[in-house]
Design brief:
Elements lengths: L8 H24 L9 H20 L6 H26 L7
Length: 100
């Protein structure tokens, strides 16, 4: 028996947003290896625009000497652990999606 997505929307939507940000940040890190930081490519600009808010928060807790790609990769790790914490919080509260 499958459980409809909307039954647990309160878990799936934040998890989806965090996953999308995490993978977009990973894409930015990979693309940043071959693209210049001031490139006018629309794909690069989209990656930057989507992930800049996360990068600004990560920069607050990362040493200033770290290269931008290191900050982006730290962001991927932080978002991963935030997703794990979200699942754990829902499990503790007893409202996590059930495995059928």
């Amino acid at each position: 028996m499958t459980v409809p997505f909307w039954t647990y929307w309160y878990y799936h939507l934040p998890n989806f947003v965090l996953a999308a940000l995490m993978y977009t940040l990973l894409g930015r890190a990979l693309l940043g290896v071959i693209v210049q930081p001031d490139d006018s490519n629309y794909i690069w600009r989209a990656f930057c625009r989507l992930t800049d808010p996360v990068v600004r928060v990560i920069e607050l807790v990362t040493p200033k000497a770290a290269a931008p790609v290191i900050i982006w990769l730290f962001g991927v790790v932080w978002l991963f652990w935030l997703r794990v914490l979200l699942l754990y919080a829902f499990l503790i509260a007893g409202v996590a999606p059930k495995v059928s």
